[in-house]
Design a protein that fits this description.
Length: about 425
């Protein structure tokens, strides 16, 4: 059983006396159903579960008046073995995007507030135009991603005590013993190769066979392509899939990782493809990193909507777009050139995205200064550079001095280094602890 951080977040929701309904949202195959079911087993006497994809006829429960009394009665007739008691029964509505009336019902469950209702869905964002049925103000949200590196370490059997010792090295800026750091980098390369999708991680933990992992990743990639073909509008289907599949070329095969429409097809323009990027974003299949024109709070005020990078929702999807030899190079640490730099950049983007940070990057064509990432925390901006080696971060130092920025991170394939002029040098895997 994979230990997931989302479980604690769901527990906090349950303990909130003024709770609303909880929507666990995220891309397909990230473990939403599994986490909710395991949580229900531990904290409730029973669970009433409806998967609207598996049981389309269950939509009938929500076809009449959406009063709680009517819905409870309909549920009891459909599940006669269930008592459905307030505080003792969890009502779990899975793949709720398949039943618009069930989405509407969340408002009335929340107002009544006697029953705990958790729902999940993988494509909830693509129906944003149907706002009239959406229960704004009556739901809490939990975004569900694939496993991050810390969760991957748990799966490997690394204890919290061992992980906390790593955090102490980070907090004290102390060099990590070389044997420990080398092993952690080995684990990190395993994580990059496996990605965070629970099924792939579980298979790797059981068999340590990357060919089996690769087979699962390829199957999941096809599943994402199916979702695009099945759920995208007729005018977006082909375009959205082309945008999605182009990401391996955009991120791993060239030095400039800005999303370029010409990599989709010759002569392509934003006018034709921008709406497809937006669809992929709303479907939680990708996330983006916008360019900013200045490095001051609030970064969103300086973001350019038409100049961005696009990353897959999980590393496993990007890795699956390449053949098996990429995994071999990652594990054997024989990557070089644009592929190595691009992959490490993607790994850092994955780490910060899964921690909930909005990602930006900076590039000034006049001064030739650029930053791989900029995030903000507690009202301050934090520049970030990612190095495949341990070269100097000249742009980072110059920008910090000009902007009077006191803290920045440089992530390297190496060890913790001395803090120089506010630049903290850290191993790549440390991004998951920031």
């Amino acid at each position: 059983m994979l230990k997931r951080k989302a479980t604690n977040n769901i527990k906090k929701w349950v303990e909130n006396k003024d709770k609303k309904c909880l929507i666990v949202q995220g891309a397909r195959q990230t473990g939403k159903t599994y986490v909710i079911e395991r949580f229900a087993e531990e904290y409730y006497e029973e669970v009433v579960e409806i998967n609207f994809k598996e049981i389309p006829s269950a939509s009938e429960v929500f076809s009449g008046d959406l009063t709680v009394e009517n819905m409870i009665m309909a549920l009891r007739f459909r599940f006669p073995d269930k008592k459905i008691q307030p505080g003792k029964t969890l009502i779990f509505l899975d793949e709720i995007q398949e039943c618009e009336e069930a989405i509407t019902s969340l408002k009335f469950w929340a107002i009544d507030n006697r029953y705990d209702v958790i729902v999940s869905g993988s494509l909830l964002g693509i129906d944003y135009k149907r706002a009239s049925s959406y229960p704004v103000g009556y739901v809490d949200y939990q975004m569900m991603y694939g496993l991050d590196f810390e969760e991957f370490l748990w799966a490997l059997g690394i204890t919290d005590e061992m992980i906390n010792s790593l955090r102490e090295y980070l907090d004290k800026r102390k060099v990590i013993p070389e044997s420990v750091n080398n092993q952690m980098m080995n684990y990190f390369r395993q994580f990059i190769s496996t990605g965070g999708m629970p099924e792939a991680v579980q298979k790797y933990i059981e068999d340590r066979d990357f060919r089996e992992v690769d087979s699962i990743q390829k199957s999941q990639l096809r599943g994402y392509q199916y979702d695009i073909a099945h759920y995208a509008t007729a005018e977006e289907k082909v375009k959205a899939e082309k945008c999605f599949i182009s990401l391996s070329k955009q991120l791993l095969d060239k030095e400039n990782h800005k999303f370029q429409y010409k990599e989709i097809e010759k002569g392509a323009r934003a006018q034709k493809y921008y709406s497809s990027i937006e669809w992929l974003l709303r479907a939680d299949i990708v996330h983006i990193c916008k360019k900013v024109t200045d490095i001051v709070y609030d970064l969103e005020d300086y973001a350019k909507d038409d100049f961005f990078r696009v990353y897959t929702a999980d590393l496993s999807l990007l890795i699956a777009m390449k053949d098996f030899s990429l995994k071999q190079h990652i594990i054997e640490n024989t990557l070089s050139g644009n592929t190595k730099g691009g992959l490490y950049e993607c790994a850092i983007a994955d780490a910060f995205h899964k921690k909930g940070y909005s990602l930006y990057f900076y590039k000034n064509d006049t001064t030739k200064r650029e930053l791989d990432f900029v995030i903000q925390k507690d009202g301050k901006v934090i520049p970030i550079e990612v190095k495949s080696g341990n070269s100097r971060a000249n742009s980072l130092g110059a920008i910090m001095k000009k902007k009077n920025i006191s803290l920045a991170y440089k992530f390297i394939d190496g060890n913790i280094g001395d803090s120089e002029d506010g630049i903290v040098t850290l191993p790549l895997y440390m991004a998951t602890f920031i």
